[in-house]
Amino acid sequence: MLIYKVVEIGTVTEEAIEEVLNTWSAKGWHFDGLQFAMRESSKRPAMAFALFTQQSVCEEGIHEN
């Protein structure tokens, strides 16, 4: 079974995005995408959402691929 993780990034900077990607990748999550929430009055995103996936362990204790 595939599990999803969504991480909100409130301050959208290169450093903040790198920190989220490196932190969750180190925990075994696989980066799936990045979505930006834009403001009408600005060209910079108001926030971003990093999307990750991970395979769950099945009931018998075997890791699914």
Q: Can you give the mean pLDDT? A: 91
Number of helices: 1
Identify the overall geometry.
elongated
Rg, Å, rounded: 15 Å
Strands side by side in the biggest sheet:
1-3-2
Q: How many strand units? A: 3
Structure classification: alpha+beta
The largest β sheet comes out as: 3 strands, antiparallel
Strand content: 35-45%
Helix content: 10-25%
Question: What oligomerization state is this entry in?
Answer: single chain
SSE order: EHEE
Report, as a whole number of angstroms, the end-to-end distance.
9 Å
Unreliable segments of 5+ consecutive residues: none
Fold and architecture overview:
The protein has 65 residues and is an alpha+beta fold. Helices cover 20% and strands 43% of the residues. It contains one helix and three strands, in the order βαββ. It has one helix spanning 14-26; strands at 2-9, 30-38, 45-55. A three-stranded antiparallel sheet has the order 1-3-2, covered by helices on one side. A hairpin with a 6-residue loop joins strand 2 (30-38) and strand 3. The radius of gyration is 15 Å and the shape is elongated. The model has no long low-confidence stretch (mean pLDDT 91).
